[in-house]
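Sync notes, pocket subgroup
Present: LS, DG
LS reminded everyone that the earlier model was apo-only. Rerun requested with zinc ion included. Inputs:
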Amino acid sequence: MKITFLGTGTSQGVPVIACPCRVCKSDSAKDKRLRSSVLVQLKKSNIVIDAGPDFRYQMLREDVKLLDAILITHSHKDHIAGLDDVRSYNYLQKRPMDIYASVRDQETIKQEFSYAFREYLYPGVPVINLHNIQQGIRINGADIEVLPVLHMKMEVYGYKIGDFAYITDANFIPAETMAKLMDCKVIVLNALRKEPHVSHYNLEEAVRVLEFLRPEKAYLTHISHLMGFHEEVEKELPGFIRLAYDGLELDIPNSWSE
Ligand SMILES: [Zn+2]
Ligand SMILES: [Zn+2]
Ligand SMILES: [Zn+2]
């Protein structure tokens, strides 16, 4: 299994439009963060978790020629705004795009992309096949587990694929989800900035959760310009925790054959 970080930024991305701060003016490529998303490449499928406003550019940058499915963590705009661009895959693959989301998020997607769900469709609109995920997910033989977490009061889904877990936009992980994370070798978790926030873990909280779970490797994502410079923040972290950055690739030995 190969993971590629397509974006590691919070909802505004980094740099923030017109922001004069030093992080937004940084020359380092690691301080440039598109909206958070990962590409998961399995033996038989390519899956993307979330499709925010940078989805089109992320698919071009990583040259993703085939896309089997999109898993949605939740329907905030920075996680779904790019769904219109599945049109290219509709055309190439000659089928609807399979999108997995909670019932609540399916309703939001239907509202925000209402033109794709009308009885009479304008030619060229995105063709989306929404799937329920209560019973878990199976894509081309690969089982994917849903990891419910809280984003303030909103339930958001993380996903567990083999030994890999991806959780974004959380500030609380219930006990049942913590139990599912105990045997994960690689965990991605959100950490917005150093200061506390009402709906996201800050750096200290995310590190505390990861030190408890103690995976082999952990990566922080959904990072704000207020976090500071990538290179400087990394020096403050325990060795097994790194800040993710756009374009980072991880090879994860697979625990199953799909
Ligand atoms: Zn977000
Ligand atoms: Zn800034
Ligand atoms: Zn959110």
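DG: The helical segments are 55-61, 77-80, 87-93, 103-112, 175-181, 203-213, 230-235.
LS: The two ends are 9 Å apart (CA to CA).
Action: DG to write up.
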